[in-house]
Amino acid sequence: MSTQAKDAEKLMIQLRDVNKWYGDFHVLKNINLNVKRGERIVICGPSGSGKSTMIRSINRLEEHQKGDIIVNDVTLTNDLKNIETIRKDVGMVFQHFNLFPHLTVLENCCLAPIWVKKVPRAEAEATAMQFLERVKIPEQAKKYPGQLSGGQQQRVAIARSLCMNPDVMLFDEPTSALDPEMIKEVLDVMVELAEEGMTMLCVTHEMGFAKTVADRVIFMDAGQIIEENEPHEFFNNPQHERTQLFLSQIL
Ligand code: ADP
Ligand code: MG
Fold first, then answer.
1. Who's near 187: CB < 8 A, 6+ residues apart?
2. Quick count: other Cβ atoms within 10 Å of Cβ 216?
3. CA-CA distance, 80 to 86, in Å (whole number)?
4. Whose CA is closest to 156, among 173, 179, 140?
5. Over the range 88-121, which residues count as b (16 or more CB within 10 Å of their CB) and which as e?
6. From CA 221, how far away is CA 212, in angstroms rounded?
7. pLDDT in the model for residue 78
8. Where in the cell is it found (predicted)?
């Protein structure tokens, strides 16, 4: 097999029988999921179904209690070294941007490369400017997050993640806090990223996005993966009653 073919076969993320409880509440129930390098996965499902918990567990923003999560061949354990290793490989974009308000856009982008990856400042700034160009806001580099629109802030958040050169990007409802006219500018950036071959897991209800870029759509309900399929089948021929009900409510 060629190196390229092997790379494509490589599993970026594996969740094996993952279970998590918040106190007595069983929030993730036997989650099994394999994500190959370059694969783009959209996760949808009703509010409270465990989507954020699942995606946050992948870089240990939440701790699971049972089962295995393996990212890039590293198994998530309580070992801080493993957590740090995984976080270097995994970028995350949140619903509410989570930028540092007291730092400029450029400083937001350079912070982790400088302090976590020990990249020299000049190099970190040059890389940050490249990514700000890619998300089409280089002219905002010296501003503070509070001076930007929501759509611009979310594009900074994406650029900031990319500055760490992640192997996989996790998105948790990146457009749901945005005014409608700003959704497209963020989705456009995400579509470009997908087309460049980034491995992506996106929690989103933007079904147009799912149809355009997803290799697979996963439907979660009550802490379980109920159904998964390639987008055409998923939308046109949902098998499970709960999937049908969900799609009838959002489409
Ligand atoms: P989704 O992202 O699909 O809306 P979440 O993963 O945020 O779902 O939440 C799943 C369930 O877990 C919800 O019922 C939520 O109330 C509960 N939950 C989320 N975070 C916590 C927490 N820190 N402590 C207790 N319960 C939580
Ligand atoms: Mg959520």
1. 175, 206, 208, 209
2. 19
3. 10
4. 140
5. bbbbbbbbebebeeeebbbbbbbbbbbeeeebee
6. 23
7. 86
8. Cell inner membrane
State residue 3's pLDDT score: 63
The H helix count followed by the E strand count for the chain is 10, 10
Calpha distance 22→28 (Å, rounded): 9
Distance from residue 203's CA to the centre of ligand 1 (Å): 14
- Digitized pLDDT (tens) for each residue of the chain, 251 residues in all: 566 666 657 899 999 999 999 999 999 999 999 999 999 999 999 999 999 999 999 999 999 999 999 999 999 988 888 898 898 899 999 999 999 999 999 999 999 999 999 999 999 999 999 999 999 999 999 999 999 999 999 999 999 999 999 999 999 999 999 999 999 999 999 999 999 999 999 999 999 999 999 999 999 999 999 999 999 999 999 999 999 999 999 87
Q: Which two tokens stand for residue 99?
A: 């930028």
> d(Cα 53, Cα 63) in Å, to the nearest integer?
9
- Three-class secondary structure of residue 64 per DSSP: coil
Measured CA to CA, the distance from residue 135 to residue 125 in angstroms comes to 15
Contact 59, 17 (CB under 8 A): no
Ligand 1, closest atom to CA 223? 10
Torsion over CA of 231, 232, 234 and 239, rounded to 10 degrees? -160
**pTM, full prediction:** 0.95
47 C-beta closer than 6 A to ligand 1: yes
Q: Is 37 in the pocket of ligand 1 (CB under 6 A)?
A: no
Q: 204 CB under 6 A from ligand 1?
A: no
The span from the CA of 227 to the CA of 241, in Å, is 10
